Amino acid sequence: WLSKVYELEDYVPSEIAQIGIDLEPLIVKYTADRYKVEYTTDPTRLWYQSAEHPIFSCNLDGLVLSDKYKTLIEAKFTSEDREWGSAEREEIPGMFMIQVQTQLMIMGFDYALVGVYIAKWGIERRVYTIRRNEKMINRIIAMGEQFWDEHVLTKIAPADDPLPLPREFSRIPKIKGKTVDISTESWTVFTEAKEAARLAGKLKDEAMSKVRAELGDAIAGRVPGEENMFYGEINGRTRIFKGE
């Protein structure tokens, strides 16, 4: 919602996101090599807008250069493999499936190639062939157009979805001299939450001090009600750990 309503300043990726960005060319190449197809990553050939549904656009990671195999390449990097299932059954995380189906709708392609590097015990490389799903695409279009009409054109954030983290709002360029009235409801909720967080932090510190006082000069203490679990210092950090 935020990125659709405002022209945001440049996004600063996290460390893991930057690794994915750096690996993207390698993942695209690996995916194309698996299928022995030519491709391009020329930025001028990767951005597209739907003619039929112009609120939808996409920026591809790679485009296959073939009149016979009209398809695109999407590159992913992750350390979480739980939602990446069988390539034969097209099991990829839901948010990526929506992204790829949107790309297929915009491009008019029947399938996409999704390459992923999974960093767990080393690097595992997989390629998924994702087929066009008209039922999902129709739902994406309907929900996207409804979202646009109700929340983008009106600049009203969805009430049933969480807002972005506060730091994301700092990316909105500010207009010099512009002021607005903050609603009583929002300000009251904010100040009450801020005070609750302060009190919770104070209670946490007091409770931790009691536990640390009981530890005294012991390196660890047994956690009550938990078999073979300890709280104390291990590898330079104070935390709960399992005994050997």
From TrEMBL:
Coiled coil (UniProt feature): none
InterPro entries reported in the protein's UniProt record: PDDEXK-like_dom_sf (IPR011604), Restrct_endonuc-II-like (IPR011335), YqaJ_viral_recombinase (IPR019080)
Chain ranges of the YqaJ viral recombinase domain: 10-109
Official protein name in the record: YqaJ viral recombinase domain-containing protein
Species per Swiss-Prot/TrEMBL record: marine sediment metagenome
